[in-house]
Design brief:
The protein has 241 residues and is α+β, with helices and mostly antiparallel strands. The protein has helices spanning 3-25, 66-86, 134-145, 162-186; strands spanning 37-48, 52-63, 94-108, 112-128, 149-157, 191-206, 212-214, 221-223, 228-240. The two termini are 57 Å apart.
Length: 241
């Protein structure tokens, strides 16, 4: 081994020894502290009165042929549509969900399934933006459609939940901070900065059970709006000091 190579190896060993000695002599405070944090899940909920009603209706007519069934269905649907327009429902708030014509059968033990005609159907979903007027709209539709009409659902809902969502969001943050502060107190530490916030769901709206009835002093239909919960769920992480 040459003298030059021996000197290089010796210099390297001395450098490593010095580096190890310096690292060993560093105070404990100089080491990177382990990150500490608290993560909490929370939700905020606000009760609101629905401001709109969704009406699901269907007209259905049985006739001797496809053509006649479809024609009579269209006539009944036009009457319903006219009644909705007269009640102040905008065209954009009336949507056809389906149109169909199918064979109609009658079953007996003697003859089995026997075709007796054809059933034409057209279903609608209608947004009633003035919730207080929903009962009157239902009555108008029933009067226009007669026995060819079926009401399949009347559901109050929150048309614009933006304000309620903001309030629910503020409530969720307040609840999360209260929970995190409680944990910090129990651990004898303090909350630092927020590392992250994740909104898990916004909003969650729980619709009330559909309720319809007749007013006590008249034959008018009443749609009970009730209240709904608009809920926001979040996860927040704070660093701990």
């Amino acid at each position: 081994m040459t003298t030059t190579r021996v000197r290089k190896i010796a210099a390297t060993l001395i450098a490593l020894a010095l580096a190890g000695g310096i690292a060993a002599s560093l105070p404990a405070e100089a080491a990177t502290p382990e990150a500490r944090y608290v993560t909490v899940n929370s939700s905020g909920s606000i009760k609101v009165t629905p401001d709109a009603v969704r009406l699901n209706a269907n007209v259905s007519v049985v006739a001797v042929s496809n053509k006649v069934a479809m024609s009579k269905t269209s006539t009944a649907a036009a009457a319903v549509r006219a009644a909705l327009t007269k009640a102040g429902i905008a065209k954009k708030d009336i949507a056809t969900q389906s149109i169909s014509v199918l064979p109609e059968y009658n079953y007996t033990q003697e003859k089995g399934s026997v075709i007796i005609g054809y059933r034409g159907s057209q279903s609608f979903v209608v947004t009633i933006r003035n919730a207080e007027n929903a009962g009157a709209v239902v009555d108008a539709v029933v009067a226009a459609g007669g026995d060819d009409l079926q009401i399949q659902g009347v559901t109050p809902f929150v048309l614009d939940s933006s304000k309620a969502t903001e309030s629910a969001r503020a409530d969720a943050v307040m609840n999360a901070k209260a929970k995190a502060t409680s944990y910090a107190k129990l651990l004898d530490v303090k909350l630092g900065r927020v590392n992250y916030l994740v909104e898990n769901s916004s909003p969650i709206s729980y619709p009330p059970i559909m309720a319809m009835g007749k007013a006590a002093d008249s034959e008018a239909t009443v749609v009970d709006l009730g209240e709904q919960d608009v809920t926001v769920s979040i996860t927040i992480q704070w660093s701990l000091l």
